[in-house]
Amino acid sequence: MEVSILGNPDYGELHVRLDPGEMLRTEGGAMSRMTPGLAMRSRVMGGFLSALGRKFLAGESFFVAEYGGPAGGELALSPALPGTVISERIDGGSLWLTAGSFLACTPGIALRTRFGGVRALFSGEGAFLMRAEGKGDLWFNAYGGVMQREIDGEIRVDTGHVVAWDPSLAYTIRGMGGLKSTLFSGEGLTMEFRGRGRLWLQSRNLPATAGWLSPFCIG
What we know:
219 residues, mainly beta, Double-stranded beta-helix, 11-stranded antiparallel β-sheet, 4-stranded antiparallel β-sheet, 15 strands, 11% helix
């Protein structure tokens, strides 16, 4: 398998050349172009309940698309949002992803969903989180540019800017001060991370962009 990422950081796109017999699993609807020799089939990844959670609770597709073929071929994947595509190798460990950030993985990676807590319902990132675990390659995407931070201690981040993090980091979702500050400051809820590990942050915030656009969408 040969992989390249083009267009980062503004319009990242994943290009994959599959050898005969190799497979790649992708977020449904991410394919932008492919060679005729490849075949695609839809499958439920991680069981029915896990797939149901990804669809209705984590913002991902119910099915993942699986590409491959006896002759191999080329495939290009484009995320729904403009921004950066990130590649990460998982070797028996795991990585937490926020809703909508999964793009693709090799067959050795499994996706699970987990309830992020009651406050996550109002965080703008969805009530559920995704955990990618196993052994293989994972690709995920962000809205805008990406900053990877090495955390050793504590950091507080607006929920709309969080993309992924190592499971060694513990987190809590909390407001910016009291109830009045949380509701009327414009900042909303934050994620407070503690421990040592990597944290991926995106430079743009989709809920903030949607809020900025909404006055112009009124007919």
